[in-house]
From TrEMBL:
Record-given protein name: Filament integrity protein fraC
Domain of life: Bacteria
Keywords: Membrane, Transmembrane, Transmembrane helix
UniProt-listed NCBIfam families: filament_FraC
Signal peptide (from-to): none
InterPro entries: FraC (IPR054663)
Listed transmembrane segments: 12-36, 48-69, 97-117, 156-177
UniProt keyword annotation of Heme present: no
């Protein structure tokens, strides 16, 4: 490894993994953008912006988590991971079951991360986000607004779940096709 103080740079660059990540993003962004456009009634530009934002941020957070967790993995898992990343093969049959469990965990963590990222972006990108003024309202209007927020959250959850499911399906097909 090349040393730069406490930072080490690997001599081997996993170019295939980087290109596959770019391909996954290129597949996921239009799918999720389309779902956001159709189900949440965003315009096309806004839905693509949100899809790009949540996918880039969730991928970055996912890779950061991976690089923090990788050093504490047992040596058997590390060797299986290296074998899969560089050679697209597993050394033992037990690791395929572990891969399926890990894929489900990653799917749901990504789903939760994308939901909170989209919610954060929607709230923070409102024009009147930083304006602090109170308008007196009666209880009926407050109840209608709160029930509308519950409906919006439900619609947001289902939209993100459908988009994430479709994009993971497309990514799984890409992985299956790349193994041949």
């Amino acid at each position: 490894m090349l040393g730069l103080g406490n930072i080490t740079i690997p001599r081997i660059l996993p170019l295939g993994v980087i290109l596959l990540q770019v391909l996954f993003l290129l597949a996921a962004i239009p799918i999720e953008g389309y779902i956001l456009h159709k189900s949440l009634k965003f315009d096309k530009k806004t839905s693509i912006f949100y899809a790009i934002s949540i996918n880039l941020f969730s991928s970055t957070i996912g890779w950061i988590l991976f690089f923090f967790l990788e050093p504490i993995l047992p040596i058997d898992f590390k060797s299986e991971l290296i074998s899969y990343v560089f050679f697209h093969t597993f050394r033992s049959q037990q690791s395929q079951a572990l891969l399926i469990v890990t894929a489900f965990i990653i799917f749901f963590l990504t789903f939760i991360m994308k939901f909170f990222l989209l919610k954060f972006f929607m709230i923070s990108l409102q024009e009147n986000f930083f304006v602090n003024y109170k308008i007196p309202e009666d209880n009926r209007l407050k109840w209608q607004r709160n029930s509308g927020l519950k409906l919006q959250n439900t619609n947001l959850v289902t939209s993100i779940l459908i988009g994430n499911s479709l994009s993971y399906t497309a990514i799984s097909i890409i992985i299956l096709l790349s193994r041949k």
